[in-house]
Write a structure and sequence with these properties.
The chain is globular and about 85 Å long. It is built from 29 helices and 19 strands. The chain is α/β, with parallel strands linked by helices. The protein has three domains: about 250 residues, 2-enoyl-CoA Hydratase, Chain A, domain 1, CATH 3.90.226; about 180 residues, NAD(P)-binding Rossmann-like Domain (Rossmann fold, 3-Layer(aba) Sandwich); about 190 residues, Orthogonal Bundle (N-(1-d-carboxylethyl)-l-norvaline Dehydrogenase, domain 2), CATH 1.10.1040. It binds (S)-3-Hydroxyhexanoyl-CoA (3H9). The site of (S)-3-Hydroxyhexanoyl-CoA has 24 residues, from strand 5, helix 3 and helix 11. The site of (S)-3-Hydroxyhexanoyl-CoA (3H9) has 24 residues, from strand 5, helix 3 and helix 11.
């Protein structure tokens, strides 16, 4: 190896007649340029060494190669590219075997496919998750996998991107053997077996793929129906289809289509989302030691409290649920039981485990005094400041020293809640999203006096619950709901000025959101927004435009899905349909306000909707409620159904550019200068040419 440069992450060691090639590129042995170059060189050297008759490749540390180095995507590619390295390895005149442990994913598994045999440790997982990153396997995976396991199984594996355990991989024919031990000892043993003819070797490229046009057509139709917005799945199918022809032509097509995916904005968005999930854990308090949490007290057995209790139980914590009377308690317990039964159905939990949780881990009480021993209390009662203060006063008297006292409030001032206790350093916001045992977002809301180790405890809890914890500051609505309450207004303005609720929802889902704003309101319950608007009436600035349509709907007792009608009608069977009564209300309110409805294109709707969202998001940044743009992206990706392939509102904002956003806001401001204001940060960026991505780097 070249000793003048950094030491290579790939070492070649000769043990007897076996060449061991060891890849050591922590943390996940990604196939960076140095790994590719080192691997190619090591294989060539071993092939040229007359003393060597078998070559075994394995990874140092916790895993085999977990994929291409996705940080290199979008930069000019440097030779040798991974397909070259793998083709070279497959062409090697001596048998090459890979020993797989940890997660042999993406380009890592493709390296294994270029070898002449694959042996896995029992705990290993293999897979081709590229589709989740806006690309598809681009180092021979689309050509070698169908040759190995057939087109239908290859389609399923590549289009789902799922991880496959060693047992299943063996059954599918993806690997040749499972062996126990350390990768190095397995490598030496397997080399011996190859030498002795006890393990056969072959090249995937020598196999032929059986044509299956029906499977390809079915997969194409399925993608068009279920993922019409995604770019890379159809490209994957096209590449897989080519595996019935000569390998070289297939690889050439694969590369061309792969590069189209690499160049697509969806690749950038999806990889940003991948990093966002990890970046949010990098908090200023990351060196503080979290407090031990084994038992949790949840106050409130409504949908939220029961969901939180379910999430805690699913992660192995003991939970005590408190409600004010036996009836409410039994309803709460019933919801938890139902949630756990659903988890069994979804394969997240075994029936025995469910029974054990209910028998040993869940207790209920009507006395807060029973919370004296718990490590963490999460309050999830309804949103009333006085009620919450009263609970925190009681908790202050009851909880043991060092217990973390958390509120699940969605918008109330946590500093004010903390101030009623003698221990504000222990008070924090843990804002879950409904259904709390399913939604991945957890806003960890840091109040003025919250201690660093309490923040660290919030993040440790998020990790334990397998949630994405995002650090937020205190303000009305924190990160997510503050932005939501702003852009919901623009949806109302569009409705008042001429678009129908269903057109707005369609435009927004066409952009890629899981649901449109009116369908979301119906699901959440229109009474919730109604109550909030009544509460805000006193402080609403007189220059703010107010749209009374939702109030009129609520006055009829129509609260959305739970009452069978809201913006939509919800028949017992079949799909929701637009509510014709709502159309009449809209017409009447427009007439009352003297508004002549005008046409909005779907693009115009999306433009206003997204610009409003981004403008408020920038203000959230300016106020320091979110630390970095990427924190806002994570909130929207994991809590608000934001289209993952667009990376989050701030990543999307960069694709438009600050100057364009300022131009849009100034145009809309001609109609409503109060609502449409250019945040100073955005104006500065437009002048300097700055980006949100650059802010992520700095902070
Ligand atoms: C591909 O292979 C394309 C080819 O088909 C064709 C090429 C021509 N690159 O997740 P963790 C970082 S596409 C760079 O917290 P875990 C990660 O950001 C790739 N960095 O650990 C984090 O950094 P930090 C196909 C990567 O134990 C650190 O490693 N492969 C990569 O929970 C630890 O990660 C995939 O899609 C990477 N590929 O999970 C696999 N992967 O500490 C993607 C991780 O600074 N990776 N990092 O925050 C994963 O799914 C998980 O990381 C893995 C480990 C399961 C491996």
């Amino acid at each position: 190896m070249d000793m003048t440069a950094d030491p290579s992450p790939v070492t070649l060691e000769i043990v007897g007649a076996t060449a061991l090639i060891i890849i050591d590129n922590p943390p996940v042995n990604a196939a960076s340029h140095a790994v590719r170059a080192g691997l190619a060189e090591a294989v060539a050297k071993a092939e040229a060494d007359d003393a060597v008759d078998v070559i075994a490749v394995y990874g140092a540390g916790r895993t085999f190669i977990a994929g291409a180095d996705i940080r290199e995507f979008g930069k000019p590619s440097k030779d040798p590219i991974l397909p070259q390295v793998i083709n070279g390895m497959e062409a090697c005149s001596k048998p090459v075997v890979t020993i797989l442990h940890g997660t042999a994913l993406g380009g890592g598994f493709e390296v294994a496919l270029g070898a002449h045999a694959r042996v896995a440790l029992p705990s290993a997982q293999v897979g081709l998750p590229e589709i989740t990153l806006g690309i598809f396997p681009g180092a021979g995976g689309t050509q070698r996998v169908p040759r190995l396991i057939g087109i239908p199984a290859a389609l399923e594996m590549i289009l789902s991107g799922r991880r496959i355990g060693a047992d299943e991989a063996l059954k599918m024919g993806l690997i040749d053997r499972i062996d126990e031990g350390e990768p190095r000892e397995v490598a030496l043993r397997v080399a011996e077996d190859i030498r002795a003819g006890r393990l056969a070797t072959r090249k995937c490229s020598d196999l032929a793929t059986t044509p299956d046009d029906a499977a390809l057509e079915a997969a194409t139709a399925d993608i068009k129906r279920k993922q019409p917005n995604l770019f890379s799945p159809l490209k994957a199918v096209e590449a897989i289809a080519a595996s019935t022809g000569p390998l070289e032509a297939g690889l050439k097509l694969e590369r061309a289509l792969f590069m189209q995916c690499i160049d697509s904005p969806q690749r950038a968005g999806l990889i940003h989302a991948f990093f966002a999930e990890r970046a949010v854990a990098k908090i200023p308090e990351k060196d503080a030691t979290p407090r031990e949490i084994a038992s949790v007290g949840v106050i409130g057995g409504g949908t939220m409290g029961s969901g939180i209790a379910t999430a805690a139980l699913l992660s192995g914590l003991s939970v005590t649920l408190a409600e004010r009377d036996a009836d409410a308690l039994s309803r709460g317990r019933g919801t938890i039981e139902k949630n756990l039964a659903q988890a069994v159905k979804r394969g997240k939990l075994t029936e025995e485990k469910r029974e054990a949780i209910l028998a040993d881990k869940l207790s209920t009480t009507t006395e807060l005094a029973d919370f004296g021993g718990v490590d963490l209390v999460i309050e999830a009662v309804f949103e009333d400041m006085e009620v919450k203060k009263d609970i925190f006063r009681q908790l202050d008297a009851i909880a043991k020293p060092g217990a973390v006292l958390a509120t699940n409030t969605s918008y109330l001032d946590i500093d004010e809640i903390a101030a009623v206790t003698a221990r504000p350093a222990d008070v924090i916001g843990l804002h879950f999203f409904s259904p709390a045992h399913i939604m991945r977002l957890l806003e960890v809301v840091v109040a003025d006096k919250t201690a660093p180790e309490v923040v660290a405890t919030g993040f440790a809890l998020a990790k334990r619950l397998r949630k994405v914890g995002v650090r937020a500051g205190v303000c009305d609505g924190f990160i997510g709901n503050r932005i939501l309450s702003h852009y919901k207004k623009v949806a109302d303005y569009l409705m008042m000025d001429g678009a129908s609720p269903e057109q707005i929802d369609r435009a927004v889902t066409g952009f890629g959101f899981a649901m449109g704003p009116f369908a979301v309101s119906d699901l959440a319950g229109l009474d919730i927004g109604w109550a909030a608007r009544k509460r805000q009436a006193a402080t609403r600035p007189p220059e703010e435009r107010y749209i009374p349509i939702a109030d009129r709907i609520c006055e009829n007792g129509w609260f959305g899905r739970k009452t069978g009608q809201g913006f939509y009608l919800y028949p017992d069977e079949g799909k929701p349909t637009p509510n014709p009564e709502v159309a009449k209300i809209i017409e009447a309110e427009r007439a009352k306000a003297g508004i002549t409805p005008r046409d909005f294109s779907d693009d115009e709707i999306v433009s206003r909707f997204m610009t409003a969202m981004i403008a408020e998001a920038v203000r959230v940044l300016e106020d320091g409620i979110a630390r970095r743009p990427i924190d806002i992206d994570a909130v929207y990706l994991f809590g608000y159904g934001f289209p993952r392939f667009r990376g989050g509102p701030m990543h999307y904002a960069d694709t438009l550019g600050a100057a364009e956003l300022v131009r849009r806001i100034e145009t809309y401001a001609k109609e409503d200068a109060h609502y449409w204001q250019v945040p100073q940060m955005l104006r500065d960026m437009a002048v300097s040419g700055g980006t949100f991505a650059a802010l992520n780097e700095e902070r």
